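Form 12-C: Joint structure prediction
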Amino acid sequence: MRWRVRVASLGVVVALVATGCRGGSDPTTDPAPPAVGWGPPVVLPAPAPPSSAAVAERPDGSAVAVWVDRQGAAAQVMSAERDAQGIWSPGVRVGAESPTPIQGARVAVDSDGVATAVWALWDRPGGAVFAFVQSARQAPDGAWEEVQTLSRGTNGVSEILAAALDDGRFTVVWSGSERRNGSYVPEVRSATRSASGTWSFARVASRTRGDGYLPPGGLAAVPGEGSARLIWSTLPRPPGGPGQILTSTLDARGAWSTPRAIAPTGPQASDLAVATGTDGTTTAAWRTGTGTLRVARTSRAGWSTPRSGPGGPVTGRAEIAAGSGGEALVVVEGAPVQGRSELRALRIDRSGSFGPIRTLARRSLPPPPLDELRGQWSPAVAIDTDGRAVVAWTASRTTSDGVGGVRARLVTGAGNWGPLETVSTFSSPVASVTVSADALTGGEFQVRWQADRNPDVPPQASIRTN
Amino acid sequence: MKAIEERLRAGRPPQAEPPPGTEERLRLALSQPRRDQRARSPEEWRRDSRRRGGRLLSIAVLALIGGAAVAYATGVIGGESRQEAAAVASPGEWGPATVLSGGHRRPPVPRLGIDGDGGLLVVWSRGGAVEAATRPASGSWTRPVRLSSAAVPSGDPAVAVTPDGSALAVWQERRDGRVERQVLRLPDGSLAGVITRRVGGSYTLVARRRSAGGAWQAPIDISEAGGNRRDAADPRVVSTGDGFLVAWVRGDRLETRRIGRDGTLDETLSVDPAGEGPPRQLALAVDAEGEALVAWTERTRGGEPAGHGLPVHSVVAARGDRGGWGDPVTLAEGLVQAPQPTAAVGPDGQAAVAYTATTPGRPSYIAASLTFDGDDWEAPVSLSSEARSSYAPNVAIDGDGRAVVHWSVGAATQFSVADEGGGWSAPVGYGSGGLVGQYSTAVPALVPDGAGRLIGAFGQHAGIHVRDWPRGGPFGLPHLVTDATGSQFGLGGVAASPSGAAAVAVVGFGLKGPRGRGWDVRVAVREAAATGERG
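Section 2 - Result
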């Protein structure tokens, strides 16, 4: 596969074109970006990060993505770099290829832009299940250093989170089952690397807190305080009782505070989503058993009382983007009513005030039983330093055959929504399309998408210029 | 689909048919019985059976009166024919289950073989080794022996035993792989763990033969080596009149090979695939003349764009003999879960395939298809109620050519019987709980005994029952085999002999083995009926 680079006018859009590529989304072979609006889809150079890749942005506007690439039984952690203009480089391998599964790759970057990737290496000897948390740091030249193993084999690792603190420390948190007195019990544990590179280990929550679920974005550095904040949900063990949403803080001495519930969640609370802005404001949203969206926020003063989101019952997990000044955008799918599904957005301003619920798009659902798939919106949201945000999702024509393209809407920092925009239209329905969104420098946004296990729709991206 | 539609069209009033190619068309066809277009109640079926039984009894009485002397002279009554003598032998009592192997870290999958006198052979896999234990009729179990090479990881065994006691065990070997060992250390240098994996190498099917009363012969390769596990997978073996027939999956095709009792190997034959999906879930059956039936599942990706939808399954069958295999026939398509087909052949060339049919948004149900003449398969018929999910079907054909299918519904068991014309009875419940399989694992739970009778096994909570099906049916009362499986899903298979002897394999848990507490292989045996009990 050959690559050629084309520098567009204005010097901000560079398109990488894979010759010979195919695609149900008709990626261009000779992009001519519009002055304003979405540029033509561009296939990312392979190996390319899928939309599900974890992405961490650097202070200079560039970013690094990590994901797990599976080739048959083997697996490997991959990383790819994106510059501040949204141009992706081909992926490279982070560690050695593993004959056993790898899951849960995450990445965080420190104030110097140095990335550290973490993941769980699985092993299943003789029917048993073990998972090892591993980590690798980028050298100044961008190469990945030797892989570090951070845990003895736990009986499975549910999720892993990572955060780089502003005092130079890096902390990893994972949820799994640890062997205690012959039995496996759920625990949340952490490993923290000091600025000098020394690792220390701690237990964040014990079995008494139940089984923990660590949502993406649930661990974030608190700027200016040399600490990190963790928020996660738990289910009691034995099951049956209501769950809790817990928070704990890593202090400067490396100790985690006693977990405390930020709110009574009631029975069947689920689908916790979390995002933290660069100012340290965290927004958390979850769904109650009755489908009510609940939102809580934190700042230096602590957690707010959870509020119910307007607009009626919702379904699925919310997508949240947090801005640099405390503003946030929560995107959620309304519970289907009479075969119709709505994609809604709730904007929270810098003061924490909720704006009105905004319906971004509506669609009819296919007849049962496919309505169990809900709207298949696959929404993604990104917010820039000016508080402008983009929401992208898969276009309508939701049938068992797939979706028809990618659509988006923008909202200004003042909360004014723009019209529906077409990011890409597929020539034929495509199944299993997932979408992600990133804010670039200069007020631009990038939307990426691909279809799972479909080589005709590889990872590709479009940039919206101003 | 077109082939199915053609078959469905036959025998159905055109004006009642939904449009061709629609799911309604297939459902309607599957919901109807064949031939008489009417599902019969269990009472009707029993009444018909009594009528037939009465006619047969009348004929038998006349024959006894008029021809007793001739019968005696020709040796039918009181003669040496094992099959004729066993046809009236009554089942004996079940002995306690004997633990043959314990301490398994995973649930083992024992395979049973039985000879004409009731001599037993059981094989299983543990820790990369294939092991076997034998028990002569009315004898004691031998100490388990390792059949596979100690230097080569082996597994997935299958076994068959001929009526005279010759046996063939088949399994998969992985050769020439290398072991990759990855030592993981924490930042302080202490050991975090070691990951060991065998990578590379080739896969081959290996067989060992044992003549009646003899010792195990040296292993022989019966398949070509392949670099993928699926190149020598899912072996099945049955005994034919003159030896054994082995079938297995090789990549995207299916291969078979016949092995004589003296060890002679025929050429490997391929069964043409019906579609593009790799074959899975083989079911193999053969009659006394060596006429064989193989049924399997083909998994393909459905939906549009092509190749990217959810997987769908089809049920395919092919018939063959020593000369080769006929064209495959697709019996069902568009199933959204693996149908786990089961196959049987009867004494007069009839054959049956039963499977679990699952379509989107509906409970799974049991369907079956019959053929009375080679590859001319009847349209599948829905046997079970569609109100609750049914699963784990087994099919067998008795000495009268009557096909019987039984399956699980929740934690209970039902069965259906086909009459001479191919009309299936409505589902018949047993009135008590019972499972015919361990979750998705297919086990032979309904088998012929070689004398025209069948025996069905049913797992219940921590216990296993069997019911005997005399020639012509129906099922008799249940007999408790064991009440100590330690697991509701402990049924590991059943085997029956024309002598009246039978065996049930049990997958238990709880006993200590050489590697500590774990799963175990147990076998309960019913001895052959005493000679004095013959008619």
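Section 3 - Comments
The CA atoms of residues 193 and 281 of chain B lie 36 Å apart. Chain B touches chain A at residues 105-106, 127, 180, 182, 184-188, 192-193, 195-197, 199, 303-305, 308-309, 360-361 (CB under 8 Å).
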